[in-house]
């Protein structure tokens, strides 16, 4: 059973629908105990980092996520869920979960022709293989919508990069945590396969 | 670098697929969910469902279609047509759409854009504008509403800028003069809007051949092109359109086994 963490940060139904399509049992939950005990966690979200952290805290989910991470539960962060697993975010100068040391930075692009948010389909490059990315072929594209990007302190935590005025990390991970800046659930077959890989991933 | 997006709009009337020619004389051409599924499998980048009966009564049929589409396709899709309030928007988002597409109601009450952006984020709010040539206005294009029947006196480019400042996250620029003609997009209109705003711009109306998309994605400065008749009547496949664009140097997205050049490296 995959537990999708509900913290009032956007539409979680698209993740649930994608898992249903794959035949993967899933539940949406805002209950800290359910998250603590979960066999596997997807941590999605869209919205503002400060609002998201406040919602996690008020629901007791911050501590639950830390505990789940510490006990080795496989966790997949998506979009905002990829950003707030870091130590802090420039969005609202927000202290975040700190599961993976690093910061979430705002795009500062010198080229005015490059619009922010970075929205649409873009290719990712695998710079450090990971079981969740095992299916990727060069040139495979994912759907992005974001104005901030994740920057781990340790470069070996970066698994894929993407080009948009600069090279930024698009998938990051440490131990039993893997997180993607793009919307895997909206990225067609290549995104569904990533979710399938996550469901089968056994972190060592 | 972002790929240029190929988007298809499914006009839905009473739960069935329709395609209008200059917004009159609609013809039933099938089940929207079947079309959505087929286009998804063919590598379409994004979908729009537009309810052309929405001004009238039953919205329940549309929400059911939205739910069925959301369960069948895993690419972004937006829903428009007759959305007047934040609650209207919330219902289609909860039914599974990523974005709402507001049009006439935003002209009547521009605050709708700001309210929807505050409730769901700008990334979820698409302002769709219908424009028709009118030499009396500064940009040469006037905003029309109610499916093109009612002129508003608003300049198209000024309205696009207003929409951006109110919090829209994306613009669909639909040229009424070109809609359904398959004679090409309205390049001057699309370009004028794209140069005036810093939002992604989707060109709509008039696409009939891949070279029309090429023109509006380059000369017209659009980020995406909306296609309807070209696909709905089977004149072209998504793959044929993308291959044609890629052959002219446009970056497009390929999905597995869809004919991407084998030597390509990301």
Question: What keyword list fits this structure?
Answer:
A: 204 residues; alpha/beta; Rossmann fold; B: 266 residues; 8-stranded parallel barrel; 35% helix
What would your notes on this structure say?
The complex is a heterodimer of chains A (204) and B (266). By secondary structure, chain A is α/β, with parallel strands linked by helices. Chain A has a single domain, classed as Class I glutamine amidotransferase (GATase) domain (Rossmann fold, 3-Layer(aba) Sandwich). Helix content of chain A is 25%, strand content 33%. In chain A, the strands form 2 sheets. Chain A has a 9-stranded mixed β-sheet with strand order 2-1-3-4-13-12-11-8-9, with helices on both faces. Chain A is globular, with a radius of gyration of 15 Å. The two termini of chain A are 19 Å apart. The mean pLDDT of chain A is 95. Chain B has 266 residues and is of the alpha/beta class. Chain B has a single domain, classed as Alpha-Beta Barrel (TIM Barrel). Chain B is built from 10 helices and 12 strands. An 8-stranded parallel beta barrel of chain B has the order 1-4-5-6-7-10-11-12, surrounded by 7 helices. In chain B, helix 6 runs parallel beside helix 7. The radius of gyration of chain B is 17 Å and the shape is globular. The chains are: A alpha/beta (204), B alpha/beta (266).
């Amino acid at each position: 059973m995959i537990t999708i963490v509900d913290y009032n940060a956007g539409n979680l139904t698209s993740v649930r629908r994608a898992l249903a399509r794959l035949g993967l049992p899933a539940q949406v939950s805002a209950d800290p105990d359910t998250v603590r005990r979960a066999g596997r966690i997807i941590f999605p979200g869209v919205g503002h980092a400060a609002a998201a952290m406040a919602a996690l805290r008020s629901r007791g989910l911050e501590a639950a996520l830390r505990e789940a991470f510490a006990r080795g539960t496989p966790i997949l962060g998506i979009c905002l869920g990829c950003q707030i697993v870091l130590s802090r975010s420039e969005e609202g100068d927000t202290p975040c979960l700190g599961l993976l040391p690093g910061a979430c930075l705002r795009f500062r692009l010198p080229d005015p022709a490059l619009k922010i948010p970075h929205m649409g389909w873009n290719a990712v490059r695998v710079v450090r293989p990971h079981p969740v990315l095992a299916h990727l072929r060069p040139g495979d594209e994912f759907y992005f919508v974001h104005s901030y990007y994740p920057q781990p302190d340790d470069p070996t935590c970066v698994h894929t990069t993407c080009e948009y005025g600069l090279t930024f990390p698009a998938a990051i991970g440490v131990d039993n945590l893997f997180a993607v800046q793009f919307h895997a659930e909206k990225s067609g077959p290549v995104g569904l396969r990533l979710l399938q890989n996550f469901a089968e991933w056994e972190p060592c | 670098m972002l790929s240029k997006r190929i988007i298809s709009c499914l006009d839905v009337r009473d739960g069935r697929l329709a395609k209008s020619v200059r917004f009159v004389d609609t013809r039933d051409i099938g089940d929207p969910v079947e079309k959505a599924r087929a286009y998804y499998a063919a590598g379409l980048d994004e979908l729009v469902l537009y309810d052309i009966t929405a001004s009238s009564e039953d919205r329940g049929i549309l929400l059911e279609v939205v739910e069925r589409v959301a369960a069948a396709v895993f690419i972004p899709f937006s829903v428009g047509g007759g959305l007047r309030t934040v609650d209207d928007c919330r219902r289609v988002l909860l039914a599974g759409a990523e974005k709402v597409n507001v049009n006439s109601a935003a002209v009547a009450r521009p605050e709708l854009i700001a309210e929807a952006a505050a409730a769901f984020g700008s990334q979820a709010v698409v302002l769709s504008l219908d424009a028709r040539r009118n030499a009396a206005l500064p940009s040469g294009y006037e905003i029309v509403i109610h499916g093109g029947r009612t002129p508003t006196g608003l300049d198209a480019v000024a309205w696009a800028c207003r929409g951006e400042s109110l919090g829209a996250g994306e613009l669909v620029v639909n040229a009424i003069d070109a809609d359904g003609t398959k004679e090409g997009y309205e390049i001057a209109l699309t370009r004028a809007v794209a140069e005036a705003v810093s939002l992604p711009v989707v060109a709509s109306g008039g696409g009939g051949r891949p070279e029309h998309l090429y023109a509006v994605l380059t000369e017209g400065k659009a980020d995406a092109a909306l296609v309807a008749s070209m696909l709905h009547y089977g004149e072209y496949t998504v793959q044929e359109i993308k291959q044609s664009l890629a052959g002219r140097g446009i970056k497009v997205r390929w999905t597995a086994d869809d004919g991407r050049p084998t030597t390509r490296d990301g």
